[in-house]
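Q: What would this chain look like folded?
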Amino acid sequence: MVRLTYGWRKRIVSKKGKYEVQRFTCIPVETNDNGQYQLKVDQQGNAKIHIWRTGKHTKGKYQRPGQLMLTENNLMAVIIAAEPMAFKDRHSETPLQRFLTTFVDDAVLQQGLKLLK
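A: My prediction, written as structure tokens:
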């Protein structure tokens, strides 16, 4: 605990509410006619990269790139890259809802990694 002094008032600020925050670079996915996951593309044929982060109430565990996640708007996306994020910077990104236990094929992951570079 840290004791902060503001004039005549003293307030105790706890680190109890802190949690590990990770930043994820993701691309939305959809299923094709065969039920396989593919990158979701716009009318010009481009897939868009988005950033999400873990939140206090995010369900599941991150395992590795290629894992699927669900956003708070129930949009499914594939995780292309993950990196740690400072707790104080967490409000700059949107939190995700949950990690899924499903993974995309390596070909889809490689296609996403090419877009990242």
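The CA atoms of residues 97 and 111 lie 24 Å apart.
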